Automatic annotation (TrEMBL), chain A:
Signal peptide as annotated in the record: 1-21
SUPFAM superfamilies, A to Z: Periplasmic binding protein-like II
Gene3D superfamilies the UniProt entry points to: Periplasmic binding protein-like II
Keyword Signal assigned: yes
KW Signal (keyword) present: yes
A Pfam family hit: SBP_bac_1
Protein known as: Sugar ABC transporter substrate-binding protein
Transmembrane segments annotated in the record for this chain: none
Listed InterPro entries: Bact_solute-bd_prot1, SBP
UniProtKB/TrEMBL annotation, chain B:
Primary location class: membrane
Protein name stated in the entry: Sugar ABC transporter permease
InterPro entries for this protein: ABC_transporter_permease, MetI-like, MetI-like_sf
Keyword field contains Heme: no
Pfam assignment, any one: BPD_transp_1
Length: 413, 313
């Protein structure tokens, strides 16, 4: 009896000692990494799981869990998790929240953790750098284009303007005519819904307008280019009825509108036996052609429990080989992969000229959607400042002046 | 510890003449405490501790991303006094609460009086008006969100009879009214049932006596019914006022505080500050303000009950 007890005690003691050892050296012992994403798309999840399983063959101790959070409250949820002491190890970061995350010191620099970093396009990484260090990897750099329901346009007896004719004026005309003749909606700025105004950058940049100056200090809403762009938009909505009015829901991918401005990754929403469609670049505005990109980054949180293991996994996840796999959903930031061949393999739905015009040219010349430190508060102030604009009898210049009055104190912070 | 154990084990062996420590009374008390401990611990952990922590947080500037938590004293309270949004937020809160309380109580009382008649079909209508209470708040609000869209169900109906309905949730004048009415229909059934119970508790003899004395229906209602159900009116008004100050899901789903800031009530504003703008310290300050407002209103109503609630004179 006494012998059994002493053996048990020895075993327990040894167990305790080894457990202590495991706690000190982070890399040994099984590790579960949690990566928050905003995509629960089964195809995306399948690919992520495959990459994680691949990683497990060389790192049997590391399990990666992908935690898909709702897109609308994504940043809020991640910050609340950090506040609650339950920070994810790796997090996707939206372009709007990028300045806050990058500047706050919440992220571990990734320069050491990216294979062939010289291959990354500078326009793609600009938003994610702090003092020359890459704080997050822009795994998705997705340009905005215009999807057109060619069946609906044809049914209305309209022709899609091409080449130099593809301007905002003509796009609005076709949208308005198609809407009035088919009873559907004309042009939908996807995810704008009269709330997320950052998506309107896909329109107002055609007039050379900007929400604020490049240094982020001066409001651009009361400047002439913005007044012109918003006057155009207001007329297109309330007079020409080329865009759905506030509170009107219309989903292009369900066949409810003639056109939509959306990121090319939305092509996955098109059904194979659905309507005929085309993908074209954003129409030219008075200031010429332009393109807008939306981005998503991957960052390693300092507050995560396994930062070094997380960094190693990010290195694997973003490697050239995996970047090529991810390219079927998320246009890569790697210059060597930004060619029609690589992208065509990954995006069988899109034709080579669509890839060249919208994706490759878009990423090379694109400017990221408006972002700023403290963007949530600024976006909220702009949103409520713009609300009076969405009425038929609005005073455009007056409303825009009000927007600047509301956000100037926030920009100066 | 051993001391206690010894005494429990052998109470009889204590010195002669001294009363044993574990009297029946003490044992009963211990048992009672043991029974309420789980609930007490729950209240401590999830009510009192957060309350104290919120006050503590409100004295700090807490940036989650930068991982800073600095004591700033009354700075957040000074910020509150200077915050240009606060007057509009308080106005919206007052508008929502007053609108909800007045409409809800008036409609609940009216329905209760109507459904207290001995007529066929009253059970059906009682069930009808009570059913929204058991529906999930979010489901109810989301469906109303669809109905109130510019091209939604309600305007479709109005269109059929030749009325061009407004854009309910997007225009300054109708957005708050819409949120209030959606909420009134959601919860009016609960107050209606409480009023019904109270109405049925009013002794019939009083009505008979009044009628014999020649009192009309309005006088009977004002002089007999109202005073006798006044305790229920107090109860429902406290529940409704406190509930109205906590409105969140409806605002978040229907208007997100817009258009402008016309539907940004206090709870929604503190949610924005803390969880969207990452200003947890300032959010905590707003929570303290909300707590004080609810406390003040409840105390006020409790004090006023002596003036107008029957049984309390």
């Amino acid at each position: 009896m006494r012998k059994t007890i002493s053996i048990a005690a020895t075993v327990a003691l040894l167990g305790a000692l080894t457990a202590c050892g495991g706690g000190e050296a982070e890399s040994s012992g099984p590790v579960t990494l949690r990566m928050t994403t905003w995509s629960a798309n089964p195809d995306h999840v399948k690919l992520f799981d495959a990459i994680a399983a691949d990683y497990k063959t060389t790192h049997p101790d590391v399990t990666v869990q992908f935690d898909a959070l709702p897109f609308e409250s994504y940043t809020t949820t991640v910050t609340t998790q950090i506040a609650g002491g339950n920070a994810p190890d790796i997090a996707w970061i939206l372009e709007g929240a990028a300045p806050d995350f990058v500047a706050s010191g919440a992220l571990t620099p990734l320069d050491e953790s990216i294979d062939d970093a010289a291959d990354l396009a500078p326009t793609a990484t600009a938003l994610w750098k702090q003092d020359g260090k890459l704080m997050a990897y822009p795994f998705s750099t997705s340009p905005f284009g215009v999807f057109v329901n060619t069946d609906l346009v044809k049914k209305a007896g309209q022709k899609l303007p091409a080449g130099d004719e593809w301007t905002w004026d003509n796009a609005a005309k076709v949208a308005a005519a198609t809407a009035s003749k088919t009873g559907k909606q004309g042009l939908v700025v996807r995810d704008f819904d009269y709330k997320d105004w950052t998506n309107l950058a896909t329109v107002f940049r055609g007039w050379g307008a900007e929400a604020w100056t490049a240094d982020g200090k001066t409001c651009g809403f009361d400047q002439q280019p913005m007044i012109d762009a918003m006057t155009f938009l207001h007329k297109a909505i309330f007079t020409d009825k080329a865009l759905p009015a506030p509170g009107v829901a219309a989903d292009f991918f369900a066949g409810e509108s003639a056109m939509t401005i959306a990121q090319i990754s939305r092509a996955s929403l098109l059904k194979e036996d659905g309507f005929g469609w085309a993908l074209v670049p954003l129409p030219a505005g008075p200031s010429g052609g332009y393109s807008v990109i939306g981005q998503g980054g991957i960052g390693v949180l300092k507050k995560g429990k396994n930062a070094s293991a997380a960094q190693e996994f990010v290195k694997f996840f973003t490697s050239p080989a995996n970047s090529e796999k991810l390219a079927q959903f998320f246009p890569p930031p790697r210059k060597s992969q930004l060619n029609a061949d690589t992208l065509a393999k990954a995006n069988p739905l899109l034709k080579p000229e669509q890839l060249q015009d919208v994706v490759i040219d878009g990423i090379e010349n694109g400017v990221v959607k408006p972002s700023h430190a403290g963007s949530a508060e600024i976006n909220q102030a702009v949103r409520s400042g713009l609300d009076p604009l969405w009425k038929p009898d609005a005073d455009v210049a007056g409303v825009l002046k009000g927007v600047c009055a509301a956000i100037n104190p926030l920009l100066a912070k | 510890m051993t001391d206690v154990l010894d005494r429990t084990a052998s109470p009889v062996r204590s010195a002669p003449g001294r009363r044993p420590f574990w009297t029946t009374r003490r044992r009963d008390q211990l048992t009672a405490y043991a029974f309420i401990t789980p609930a007490l611990l729950g209240a401590l952990a999830f009510v009192f501790l957060p309350l104290v922590l919120v006050v503590w947080y409100s004295l700090h500037e807490w940036n989650v991303l930068a991982d800073t938590f600095n004591f700033v004293g009354a700075e957040n309270y000074r910020k509150l006094a200077d915050d240009p949004n606060v007057p509009a937020v308080l106005r919206a809160t007052a508008f929502f609460s007053i609108g909800l309380v007045v409409l809800n109580l008036a409609l609940a009382l009216l329905l209760a009086v109507l459904l207290n008649q001995k007529l066929r079909g009253t059970t059906f209508f009682r069930v009808l008006f009570f059913s929204p209470v058991v529906v999930s708040l979010l489901a109810w609000t989301i469906v109303w969100g669809f109905l109130l869209q510019d091209n939604g169900g309600l305007n479709g109906l109005l269109d059929a009879i030749g009325i061009d309905g407004p854009n309910w949730l997007r225009s300054g004048g109708t957005a708050m009214a819409s949120v209030v009415i959606v909420q009134v229909f959601k919860n009016v059934g609960l107050n209606m049932v409480l009023f019904l119970a109270a109405l049925q508790g009013v002794p019939q003899e009083l009505y008979e006596a009044a009628r014999t004395d020649g009192a009309g229906p309005w006088t009977i209602f004002r002089r007999i019914t109202l005073p006798l159900i006044s305790p229920t009116i107090l109860l429902t008004s406290i529940i409704t006022v406190v509930g109205s100050l906590q409105v969140f899901a409806q605002i978040s789903v229907l208007t997100q505080g817009g258009p402008g800031t016309s539907t940004t009530v206090l709870v929604y504003y503190l949610y924005q500050q803390a969880f969207q703008f990452h200003a947890f310290g300032y959010g905590a300050t707003l929570s303290v303000v909300l707590f004080l407002i609810v406390l003040a209103l409840t105390v006020l109503q409790w004090q006023m009950r002596k003036r107008w609630v029957f049984h309390e004179h």
